[in-house]
Please model this.
Amino acid sequence: MASGKINVSVENIFPLIKKFLYSDHEIFLRELISNATDATTKLKHLCNIGEAKVEYGEPKIEVRIDKDKKTIHIQDQGLGMTAEEVEKYINQVAFSGAEEFLNKYKDSAKDAGIIGHFGLGFYSSFMVAHQVEIITKSYKDEPACRWVCDGSPEYTLEAHDRQERGTEIILHIAEDSEEFLEEYRIRELLKKYNKFMPIPIKFGTREETTTVGEGEEAKEEKTVVDDIINNPNPAWTKPPTELSDEDYKNFYHELYPTQFEQPLFNIHLNVDYPFNLTGILYFPKLSNDLQLQKDKIQLYQNQVYVTDNVEGIVPEFLTMLKGVIDSPDIPLNVSRSYLQSDGNVKKISNYITKKVSEKLKQLFKDNREDFEKKWNDIKIVLEYGMLSEAKFYEKATEFFLYPTVKGNYHTWDELKEKIAPIQTDKEGKLIILYASHKDAQHAYIQHAEEKGYEVLLLDSPIISHLIQKLESEHEKISFVRVDAGPIDTLIKKTEEMASVLSDDEKNQLKTILENHIPKETYTVQMEAMDSAQPPLLITRPEFMRRMKEMSMHGGGMFGMGNMPDMYNVVVNTNHELSARILKNENEEEQTNLIKQAVDLAKLSQNLLQGEELTAFVKRSYQQLVH
Ligand code: ADP
Ligand code: MG
Model:
């Protein structure tokens, strides 16, 4: 029996590992299974090149819990280690650098700035075990050996009579880690980290029911089979040509077993130069509550799950997507801020953006009708992308759609072409009319449509930001919401209308109305419009509404906390009612006319509520019986 000292510069790695990796101590299993997988793939390679003259067979990795002995066993049928190799690979760990590394990064590690692990690999088993045993038999013709260590630098290494090739790691679970002796806990970890690893992983057995015999003879038979945790050949590792739509959908549900919605479409990522990356991204149907999304993009390295926090790797606007990314080229033992400045990672992020825009363009070109159908579910991602990624903005111009309230979809160029002849104002500016809600702004939409104008339906929460951006990119274009003013003043095409009322009369009427309309919220404005327009119209100037919206969504942009709601009451001085109010000498009747007219205008803008609405209804009934 040999004994010696592990070549580490720290006296006791046990407390060190526990302390710094505590929040992540469940990764021990991922590390050990990764090692078992490596050992198996290495053997396969040696067999292939003829260096190992053994039967490769159908090796699997087995995980077993012994509750009585309080041990977890991880056993593989890989290449194993000779005693010499154990000395070399396990004892001479490049551990001298570990203390330095931990010292260097301990600040970022504290606030979870460091993702994953430190590459401590095998030694992470001491996070959960007070003692670790390795029993291993090399594929070479040499006896097996047994290594035991309790986390202190002392270990023992002796010969063992094991005959089967491979390695068994036995963890003697520490008292504070006994949760890992629970079957459900280990199953959960295997499902989380190892679901798509390349070598089959067995965890216990299960019963399988099969039908044997035929016709009347047929009977059900129960057999006990290995419970294999993983799918060693997940879809993203296959070439896209081998996969059908159905395969992609199935993989989506394999990835997110609790997700019942179907994805809208997928993007297969596959690149090996200048970096290595594979994966499948899915565009999901986005629920309105973006915060509540628990199924996120998962990051893998060589089919080992790493994290579902892909911030910094995937462009922010695409973090709303789902799917997997597998890349060994993403440095993980670094802080997030470092990650964002890493050249490779930047390239990866740009590549993903490019692939996504190419796919969108292709979908738009191949089947525009279908693309339009999906528009509502994807637009928010695209809008966000146009706002946050200059490159994406450029590309998206080709396929970004502007839906109308009537249900047509225009590209930017189509839209411009369509409205240029009718919606250009005197200064040559193109006026794009839009509504944010079909029903709430119905009256205003109708006024615009009666004039033959095209009205867009733009209803995303971030649309005001996108509009702002589009306006700053295109000089001679203005977006105006339909209720921003009387339709004729929004598109100043016509000459001023002749007014039926004289200037004196207008001023008189204005004063009368102002006595009945609260100044803090409403500004009375006189306007000569054609008599088909309503007598009173409540509008909200475009810039006012936009500032308010942006201060709300932009987290106090411009330093304005709570902007008050301000509206205009536009009076059509050419409408018959204007003259009637002005000429009425019975004060009570006049007041009633004004109240009724103002309430109707408010009603059209969804502003009549509560007490005011009740009073209006009451007054209206009274007028029916008088
Ligand atoms: P890494 O996997 O990054 O090399 P580890 O600390 O996880 O670091 O493992 C150290 C070394 O021990 C491995 O490189 C390998 O040579 C050896 N080893 C660990 N586990 C096994 C195993 N199950 N079978 C064969 N060799 C192993
Ligand atoms: Mg390892």
Observations:
- Residues 179 and 357 are 46 Å apart (CA to CA).
- The chain has four domains: 2-204, 235-392, 401-496, 497-626.
- Residues 31, 35-36, 39, 76, 78-81, 89-90, 119, 121-122, 167 surround adenosine-5'-diphosphate (ligand 1) (CB under 6 Å).
